[in-house]
Backbone:
């Protein structure tokens, strides 16, 4: 199973490689925006293995992050197979 996580683009560097610093609830990572050239600072993106694979709106990102938090709080591994 693969997991993609939403994060918010904080800044973008480079014209051709389009690397961004993305925040995942306070943890920041360097992410490639090559697959989502329309992403800009302040946008939310879905990230999988270091690549942004799509944009999403803030409400969808919030709901997804809340679901992840609820799963983590429940301590249940049965929620995901």
Residues:
């Amino acid at each position: 199973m693969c997991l993609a996580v939403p994060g918010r683009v904080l800044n973008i560097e480079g014209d051709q490689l389009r690397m961004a610093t993305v925040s995942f609830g306070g943890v920041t990572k360097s992410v490639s925006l090559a697959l989502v050239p329309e992403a800009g600072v302040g946008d939310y993106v879905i990230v999988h293995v270091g690549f942004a694979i799509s944009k999403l709106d803030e409400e969808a990102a919030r709901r997804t992050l809340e679901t992840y938090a609820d799963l983590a709080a429940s301590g249940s591994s049965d929620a995901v197979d």
